[in-house]
Every structure is written in structure tokens, then in C-alpha cells.
Give the backbone structure.
Amino acid sequence: MTNSCDHDLHSTVFQPERTLNSTAPADPAASPAGVATTTKSSFQDLFAFTQARHVPLLTASISTAALVAAGRTTYAILLGRIFDVVARFGAGVVQPADLLAQIAGWAVWMCVLGVGMWAVSTVNIAAWVVAGELRARTARSEVFSRLLMGREVGWFEAREEEVSGLTVGVATHIRELQTATSQTLGFLVCDVLLFGSCIIVAFVYSYRLTLVMLATCIPSALILWAISRFLDPAIEAQKKELAQAAKHVTAAVTAIDLVKVYNGVDQEAWNFTSAIQRSSKYYSRQALCNCGQMGYVKLWIVMLFVLGFSFAVLQVDRGELTPGDALTTFYAALNAFQSIEKLGPQWLELAKGMAAGQSLRRLLDESHNDPVKHSDGWLKPSKCLGNIEMTDVSFAYPSNPTRAVIRPSHLRFEPGRLTFVVGRSGSGKSTLGSLLVRFYKPHTGQITIDDRPIISLDVDWLRQNVTLIQQSSSVFSDSFFQNVAFGALDPYNVPLNTVQDACNMALLQSTIASLPSGMDTTIGPGGYGLSGGQTQRLALARSKIRDPPVLILDEVTSGLDPVSRNLIMEGIRIWRKGKTTIIITHEVDDIEDDEYVYVLVDGAVAQKGLKREVASDDGGLFASFVVSAENISSSSSSTDSEADCDSDSSDDGPFQEAHYGRFLRGALVTSRRMSVGLLRRISLRARQSVVESQLHESLFKRRSAKTTSHKPTGSLMTRNTATDRSSIDNVSARSSVQVIMQRGLSVQRSRVLHARQVLQTNLDTERPASLDSLDRFFLGNLAKRKNRQNPPTGTRRTSLTAVLKTVWPTLDKTGKVQLILGIVLCLVVAGSKPVFSVFFANLIQQLWIVGGQERSVSRWAGLLAGIAVIDASATFFGYFLMEQVAQKWANTLRAEAIKRILSQPRSWFGKASHSPARITQCLDGNAEEMRKLLGMFVPIILIITTMMLASLIWALIILWDLTLVTLAGLPVAMAAARANSLVSDKWEGVCDEAAASTNTIFSETFANIKAVRALTLERYFTDKHSRSASATYLLGVKRAGYIGLFYGLHQSIVYFLTSLVFFYGAKVLSEGSTSATDAVKVINLLLFSLGTSVAMLSNVPQIAAAKATAVQMLYYANLSYTASHEAQGEKRLSTPLPVRMMNLQFAYPGTPQTQVLRNMNLKIDAGTFTAIVGASGCGKSTIVSLLLQLYDPPPSRPPTSAAHRTKIEAPISPILEVPSTSQFQQFPLPSVTTTHPLTFASIPSSHVHTPSLRSQIAYVPQTPFLFPATVRENLTYGLHATSPLRDEANIVLAAHQAGIHAFVASLPQGYDTPIGGGGGNGGVAAVSGGQAQRLCIARALARRPRLLVLDEPTSALDAEAAAGVRNVVQGLVADGRKQKGKEPDMHHGDGKGVQEAEGMAVVVVTHSREMMKVADRVVMVENGVVVEQGPYEELIARGGRFKALIEGGVWTGDGNLVEGEGERRKKRIRAKDVERSREEALRRLEGM
């Protein structure tokens, strides 16, 4: 059968011409090769992580399972004995008085057995749950440590599913293994032992009857084995497709800005939905196999009734067997075979667990072939001098082995020397650093350190002495203090003053002052957001703490403004004097004339020598770099990664950084060592009356009030409070601390609290009049609107009814028909049980028919055979249809969830509970788990309810008084079942949350594997993960105790009810008010119904887990489409230009009290090239976010008058642009446009249809991101399938313009080569940071936008490539002007000479002076307002703030500019006294 929901799901989302999975195999499970390469999992895979220390617990679990099996065997014997008494009573052998006495005795023993079974079942289930938790903990720890310690970086990068898919897959496998090895394995062991014990009992009473029944085992086993052969390939194929789906979800959530700007929501939904649809095909095969096994087992068991009892009657008739022995033998054998029947619903879980154990073990076993294990060195020299030599080294990435990244060359890095490595993007610079720390193994040649081959050195020793700081620095989810302390060899024990000194050196004082809790503030995913520049400074602080003999810095200043970069470079020169330092850069301006340089071209050394020597070669590449940068006095291309983050905290933290760079050159030169007092959060209140002495007092009290030890991760760190006091007391009158405080106070006052005015929209008017049924159902049944943004937790419970009510609205017509048929067939299964009980009672009656009476064995046996066929067929088709419906339900919710997730506001993704790892885990593993609700639980409930109802009605008709007595015990049984369900539900949620936290640590560690390896943090993260895994395990142990108690109670109820039924039945029989046949019919009806119900409800723990995961899925599927401003506007524009900001004020939704933009006035006209500049944290990236409609500003308010400004705040003179009347005549909305702070083409942003607006906008982000797709699919990302922009000519043109065509052409499959995975190195083809940046630029150019927004587009490019990008941008703007036939007035700052309706507008956020020069207009932003704007040369001539920013001088606030040190250095007029003052200041800065 095919999955009929494919068409309906695909029709709900956008269908691009190509999907990102276009290279995926169509049917790996069906192909012979795929099957041949898949090793069939076995039962021993369940014990893949069982260790010797687990044996006692495993022994205890098996022992208690044996006791449970013994109890159930005893139950069968007791049933046989009781029925023997009834049979002898029916035959007239036992008198009524003796009947009651004998059955009463057996009933007492049944009650005793029930008490014992409660105790034993409690211990048994608890033991198995603990065993499952223990295996899960062992698997987590072993997989974590083995992957962390036994894999090269290249192994992670070469994986098809990438690191994100790997981590999600591991978490899913561990969950499946845990499920299979806890209750499920316990049931299996108990049932196997029960089978064996019952067969022994049956042999004891009648070996002939037992052998007859066992004879059916061989053909049945062969049939079941044949069916199961198709299970493993389907499971493996499904896992591969789910890994692809997880990869797409992770990429989409990680790059949510790009997904939104490029209108990629539908495409991402299509990619994900396509993958899960392919996985659904394989799950259908699994369900087919499982349901086939269930149906056959049921047919087999019922036919055993017919065959076994027919033979038993024959033996009794011949006198070879007494009725009592026959019944005991039969019930023992029946109990044995029913134990096999109960494995049917569990077998798929066992199969998945075996496959999961095999996958995890196979993942670990790859270490035998891993080069790390066989090439690990052993030498640990006592000292590292830092003499590095690379001789004839070559290297190619495994993804493209034919393209050499490093070609045979000779490089030597002498000890104690600062050496620079430069070259074009993709020339192999970064790869050199990776080879030196052994991230990869070179193919040829040799690398030596102090004349020792690097291969012979211990890896830990190597990385402790050779530290690599990469361009993309990692921030871990921990405190700021601990993130810096990670640089130490022992991150557990780092003194506070050590961290303070490192932060001083990295200019992180203002960053720390801006943090809510100082250095105790949690940063990283889910915490306070740091910008890219702040992250790079943090990485530098780590390297300062490590202070290794060899330090490799890979573009670590690209995220800094020119002034800060110059300070950092000078600090590095002083700090690293006498130690080997390798700086990889494309900024030739940072190199001194007497410093050594290697120039790489295509992975080989093209030039080497001192800078002045290499630069003198006019024909060399380095000379061209110098020529490209010769007009740049500070830096021609640096990154504003420090620009405000797009997170809620983005512009608050980084704001003061640039101020440090400017005043350190002046104020710090005359000050003493910078006080470490600012390294705790200073409470700067905006009060005019606060004087600096009070700030000093407050600062000291704040720090002294804290404990004297710092413990970020459980270790003590000493604080020298007395030293801090003395350092504060000894600060001079105009120390840097005072300057910092004054500027901090100014910042705090400039960002005054304000009441954010949020536009409240009426959902009844904004939403379409007709909602789809799924939306209506969500609104009416799942959650209150006010709680929609709160994710489910372990303590929040949603009713199962509310969850199941979402099934019907998600189904198409075919699905609804399948659901109805499935329910009908489940009712048939339920009805067959009471019919079987009555027929079987009549068959039992044949045992006490005395001579002379005619037996009708064949008649009742034939009827039972007919019931067997009907029951087996209904079981197969009913369960299969319900599994199909469950799959459609899960897939529809997945498709709905991914679309709703990606439609949420940008701020929604900043929460820790909405991290990519958690979303991916929910859409992948949780969705697979939630199917059990519909595929397993609903059939169970239908069957139990219908069966109990039919049995009770039938029993009431036959013998009402006995039935009523039995009903008296049902409330107790129902209460026990309910208690069992509630306890399981609660603890499943708690344990799921704990497991999710552990999985988050797992994901974070391997997502930043290079940083972990480079800083030798393996032990730290192993300990952290181990602590989390242990905490999860301890919760699991508590869970085991609670659910074991209630599970045991639930399972023991049947024994007490059985004794009650038999005792009262004997009483009725002894009184002569009914016949033995009728009594047996009622007893069979009640006992078979109760027994079946209890057995089926043993799956409650699994159902509780499925419900917990379903609630999480429904939370995402219940998110509102209208929660974001993106869904509000309806006005479609032919052009977004002009863009106008008028008195715009903005604060991020997460921090509404922190105002980022204040009275921002800006206009972007068509045909203009605008460069937005400013110090880090001034609001530049926030402007970009608003231009891209990632946020919607609140209504404007009147600008703050000068009278309300603080005295310390610098005067602000915003340049207001008053719109002309003609500009508003095209769109007659004067009442709105005059009040709304942001308009596109004179239309308020809240009225604009966001998707159509973004179709005319392109964006190049600061950090390049490539989606897991081919080059072609990346360049055409977001374009409609019918768009002419998808043509080959346009794609190639964009690649040529971005300077990336030659590289793409060199790839194995050209434009069809798979790349991507979050930065360029995770895909099939590895690309450098610069190549990834150029691909992002080509992606933007391929859209041929009206508005092109670039955020530091040349930060990762060399000077030559950056010049090419500038020329392309200039050409695009010039082409737009030619279309109008009118050139703009280049000297008119507001660009009024340009017609708004024509041409392209370019907005670039930059620190590059050359980029500013080619722009029509430079807009300088400070404190959230425009303070200067105009052409570059005009602003320089003014000598104002812009010149101070560019030249690195100190703006004094009175209009005077003090020339910066960077300018004097470039002019080569450094006076010796100035040099000494600067070095002294930098020494103080770094704590020397």
C-alpha cells in the first residue's frame, strides 16, 4: 500500500524546480546494493552498551522477571485447578457444598498470589526501567567520549548528514535503545521465561498434548522470520531520510534571517516535507511487517485453541487424561503461546532498538580505521621552543581529493618571531593552521616542531603548546567568566585576576559592564547574545590566558573597527614578544616593514621574506595587495561583526567598545593600570546627581558584597578583594576607570527606558474569514491563546483527549476513510473476543459430558477457527490502517509545524527552548514517537472499551448477579490504571526534559568541535556531559520507583478480581441457581476480557512517552501564523524605494527597556549607494534588520528635546529629511505616512506585504551561510520555479560578478556540486570563508534586486577580491542610473537628484574606507541617530566625528580632533616619546 498523503502534503507547500535532496537515493532500501551493505541487526545489539558492572542489575532484573513468570505460571495452574473443580462439579463428581469450599481455598491462594505479584512486578518493572536508564547513560557517555576523543575533524565534516544530523540521530538512537531495553526488554524476558515455565508445566501434566501444540511452532517461526527479513532494511532507509530532514530543519532555523529575507519558508518546508515523505514509505513497510506478524500470531494462537482443545477432549474421551489435567495442560500451554502473542506490538520497538544499538556500535567501531588512533604520538617534550617547519606538505580535503588545497612548499616559522601568512580567499591560509594543530593529516611531506615530527607528538601536548584561534570563534552556553577561562589548561581553577587581565588585553571592559550579571552572565545559545566582534575579543582573551609557545591567529581582528584592531595588534606585538606567533590575515596594512610574510597562491608559497623586501617586487602578488591598500591609512576592510546582534540584547552590550578604542589612545596613556572594577556589572543609573566618587563607592560595595570565591562550574576561584580595593583607591583623578564610568553613564542615559508601543491587531479582522479546519481545531481545543508562546514542560500536562482531537482535522478524505475503516476493524477485533469466550466455554463443556451424551467438538472447533480467521484479518488490516493514519497525522503536524515555526517573529528564535537542536529533535525523534498514540494506543482503547462493554452486556444477560459482583471491583481496577497512566505521564515529561538538556550539551560540543579540540576542552565537556547524563539517570531512577509501584498495582488487580469472580461463581453454582455451562461462559467472558485488558494496558509507559512528545509537537503546530508583523500587511509594491525612516525609535522585543535607535532619520533613494558606518554597537545592524523587515518598529513619538538630554551626553544633531509632496502623491496615505517611522515607497511598513517586498531585496550577511544543497540551488535560493532568474546565464553572470565562477567551475560537478552546512565546510565540497562569502554575494546578485543590503561583504576577502566586489556594486548602481538617463548629484548628501522609481539602491554596512569612498553617501550613526552624512571627502574635510572614527583619533566633544596613533603610524612619523607612552599604556592594558 502506498502512503496516500504524499500528494496532499506536497500540495500545501511551495514546489521548487529542484529540491535540496535532489541527490538523495530514491529507494535505498529497495536497491540490492543498499540491502547488501546493511548488516542485519541481532538481539545482541540490544546489549551493545552493557558492561560488566551492569551484570548485577541485569541479574536482578532477570531474576524478578523469572519470579513474575513463575507467578503467571502459578496463575495458569490455579486456573486449571479451579476449572477442574468446576468440570467435576458439572460431571456430578463434586457436591455443591464441596464446590464452594474447594474454590474458596483456591481463591485465597489467588489473592496471596496477587499480593506477591504486586511486590514482584513493582521490583521487576523498576529494575528494567533502571536498566534502560543505565544503558542510556552508558551509551551517551561512551558515544560522547569516543566521538570526542577518537575522531578527526575531517570525519565530522565528511559525514553526509553533517554534525547536526549526527547529533540528532545519536539522540534518537539512544532513545530507541533505551525504550527497547527497559520495559520492552523486560516484557520479552518475562514472556520467554513464562513460555518456558508454562511449557514445562504442560509437559508435566500431559506431554502428548503439549507436543501437539508445540508442533505448530516450527512452521510459524519460519513464517515470522520471513516477514521480519524486510524490517531491518526499511528501518535503516528511514533513518537516512530522517537524517536528511533533520539537516534541513537545522539549517533553516540556524539561518532564519536568510530564510525570511529570501522568502525561503515554503522551500524549506518543501525540503523537510519531501524528506519525511520518503521516510514515510519505509515506515509503511515496517508497519506492514509488524502488522503481518501480529495478524499471523493471533491466527496461530487461536488455532492452537482449536487444535489443542480438540486433542484434549479426545484424550479425555479415551481416558488417557483427566479433565483437570487437560485443563491445566491447556491453560499452561495457552499461557505460553499468549506470551508470544503479546510480543507482536512490542516487536517493532525491539527491532528499532536492535537497529539503534547496531548503529551506535557501528559509529564507535569506525574508530579502528580512524587515523587518530593509529597516528597519535607519544612524545611530551619538557619544553616547546616554537620552531616550526613545514617541508613539502600537501593536502586536499576528502570532499574533493582531486583539488589540492596545500601544494608542496617549504615554510618555516622561527621561534620568537611574528610571522604573517597572506593570500587570496581560498589560497589555503586557514588550512595551514588546521594542519599545524593536527585537525587533518597532510597527504605528503612533514611538519616538525623543534625538529620533532608532529606525528610523534602527543596530541594533547601539541594543542596545549600550539593554540589555534579561528576566525569563527565559538561561544559556549556558560557564564562569560567560564567562556574566557576556557583558555586555561585547567578551566576549573582560574583565578579571577587572570581572567580580568585577559579581558583588559582584549578590550572587553565595556562588554562586561553591559552584561546584566557581569561575568556571571550566561552567554551563548539561549543566553545573552554577543556580537561577532565581541566573540573574537573573547577568543583573544582565551589565548591570552593560554599564552602558548606557539599561537596561530586566523583573521581574529576581522570583526574589529580600525582603532580597536590597531590597539589589539600593538598589544599582540608586545605580549607575544619572544614567542612564535603566526597571524593569518588578508590585511597587509597590519604588517610592519620588518615583519616576515608568506604569500600563498593556490596553496603554494609564491613569495616570502620581510614585508619591505616582498613589497619591493612590483610583479609579485603581495605588491598588488599593497597597491590595493596603499590609500587606506588604517584598514581597508574590516568587519563590523561587533555591530549589534540581532538578538534581543544586541545593541546594548557592544555599544561602548568603540569608545574604548578612541579614548584609550589619549586618556589611557596618562593613566595607571586599568582597574578591574568594571569587570563586575556596574549599576549606572541615569541620575544627574550621581558623582564619580559615588560610583567608585557603589562599585566597591557591589564587588565586596559578593562571595570571595567564584564558582562557575563547581570549582573555587580566588578573588583578592583587598587588591581590588587598593587598585581602586590608587586610581588617579582622571583614570581610565573614571572615563569608562563617565561614558558608561552617558550610554545608560542615552538609552532611557521607554514604553514600547506595540501595535495590537484584531485577529478577527486581520485573519481571513474562513480558517482551515486544523487552525480552528487548534484554537478551540489545544491551548489558550495567552499560553501559546510557552513551550510544554515536564510539569505541564495536556489531556489526551485534546491531543487526539487534532487527528481528524489533519486528515484528507482518504485518511478519514482509512481512520473509519481502522476503527471499524478494531471494533471487529474487540467483538471477536467475547464471541470467542462464549464459543470456548461451549468447547470446555465437552470435558464434562458423560457417557450417552453427544459431543459437538468439531462444531465449536470450526466456529473458533472461523473466529480466528476474522480476528487475524481484522487485526492485520485494522492496525495497519491505524498506523497509516498515524503516519499521516504525524507528517501533517510536522509539515504544519515547520511552516509555523519559520513564520514566527525573529525574536522568537532567540529563546533557549527554541534552539535548532530542540526544534530538530522534536520534528524528528518526537514525531516518530507520537505515532504510537494513534497506531497503538487508540486501537488498544477501542478494543478494551468495546470488548469490556460487550462482555459485560453478554455476561449480564447470562448471569446478572455474578456480573454485578465483578463490576464492583472495576472502579478499583480503573483507578489503578488511571494512577499508572498519570504517574507515567508526569515522569516521562520530567525525564524527557532532562534528556533534552543532555542532548543539548552533546550538540553544542560537536557543533563547536574545532574550538573544543583547539583549546583541549575534551575533559571539561566530557565531565559536563557526564554530570548532565548522571542527573538524567538519577531522575530515571526516581521515575522507576514511582511507575514500578503503580504498574505492579495495576497488574495485580486481575488476580483479586479473578478470585472474586470464581468465589461468587462457586456460590451461585452451589445454590443451584444456574448451570455450570452458563457459569463458565460468564467466567470466561469476564476473565478473558480482564486478562486481555491488563495485558494490553501494560504498554502505558510507552504511551505516556508518546503523549509527552505529542504535546511538544502540537505546541509547534499550534503556533500562530499571525504572531509576526510579516503576516499583517497587504499592500504589494512595484519597488521598495524610497525607504524612509522618520524619527524612528526602536528596541528589541526581548529588551523593550533598552532603546537602540533614537529618532533615526534616514532616506534610501533609488540609484544611490549608501554606506552606513559607526562605532561598534551604534545601531548599524539594527538598521539593516529593519530594512529587511525582520522587525517592525513601533509608531514614532516626538523626538526628545535637547532639554531632556543628560549633561554628559554628547550633543546630537540629527539630520531630518522632510519628504516632498510629489513623493506622496503616488500613494495617498498622508495621515499614515506622516506618523509611521518606517515607510517603503511612501507606504508604512506595517501595511506592506512583506513577502512581495522581500522579493525585491537581497541580503549578504556578515557571517556567510550556505544551505545544504548544490551551488546552483544556493545561488537560486528562494526564487520561484518559473522565475527567469533561474536561467543558467543569470547564475553564471552572478558568479562572475562575485568572482567565484572559476572556483565553481573547478568543482567536481560544477554548479551541481553539493556544498553547504552552515558556513561552508560541512557539505560535500569544502569551501573557505572567503569563497563562502563570495557565494553569498553571488546569491544576492542573482536576484537582481531593487534594494541590495550588504553587511560587511568584504570582511573575509583579500584586497583584490574586495576591490572586485566594490566595482560590481558600483556598476550595478551605475546601470540603474543609465536607465533613467540622469546622474545623481554626488555632492548632494540626501540624494535628491535621483528619481526614486527607477534603478537599484545599495546599502552597505562597512568599516572599509575604500567602500566608503566609492559610496555616494556615507551615513555615520552614533547612539542610535544619524550624526553626519555626505560624500566621503566632504565628511573628512569637515573634521568632525566621522574623521575621528576613520583616523582613530579622540573626539573630545568640543569639535576638536586629536590625531590618532594609527594615522601617525601610517605616516611613519612616530616620535620615540609617543612610542614609549603607547607601549606603556598597552602594557598596563594587558596587565604587564
